[in-house]
Amino acid sequence: MRYIDGGGNEVTGVRPTPSMEDYLETIYELIRSKGYARVSDIALALNLQPSSVTRMVQRLDEQNYVTYERYRGLVLTERGEAIGRAMRQRHETLATFLRLLGVHDEAVVQQDVEGIEHHVSRQTLERIERFVAFARANPAWMNQLHAAMQPGADGDAPGRAAPRPDGDGPAGAASGEAQAGPARAGPGP
After folding, report:
1. Which residues of 4-37 are buried (b: 16+ CB within 10 A; e: fewer)?
2. Which superkingdom does the taxonomy of this entry point to (predicted)?
3. Bridge-partner residues for 73, per DSSP?
4. CATH class of 88-139
5. Res 97: pLDDT
6. CB 7 within 8 Å of CB 83
7. Radius of gyration (Cα) for the chain, nearest Å?
8. Model's pTM, two decimal places?
């Protein structure tokens, strides 16, 4: 079976499950920060029982994502490291995106990223990466975005269309986009 991994590479083999991706990301981070990863470290990081972690690590070993020796720890294979790195990058990109949108509570950022990171297509992730790069390169634009996103910033009720930059009606009106509202049946009697 062929698939595209988290790093955009075409790979032959069994596609890792979201749970496997979480493990590979955690192992990658542990090795980067501590220089090694043991079952006990992974269990602590993922808040799981060591026996559950051992079963998953054995599965990762069988599928050539890690090399595992009981009681000695484990190392990522080239394939496992590539996926771990890609998952970490995806996680950071999504977290940065949420922070740029004004999500300031780090617990909320992490919870939301964990909820969406395995469901974002490569195409969407690439667009988010481009948005993040644009936002970082254009701080004045980001200041305008943050100001516009403040509750009541446009003087209107939440959920209403914001005025266009030229001040003439809701955004999208001049571009021919359909505006939400009651449908008209045509001229009256």
Report:
1. ebbeeeebeeeebeeebbbbbbbbbbbbeeeeeb
2. Bacteria
3. 69
4. mainly alpha
5. 97
6. yes
7. 23
8. 0.70
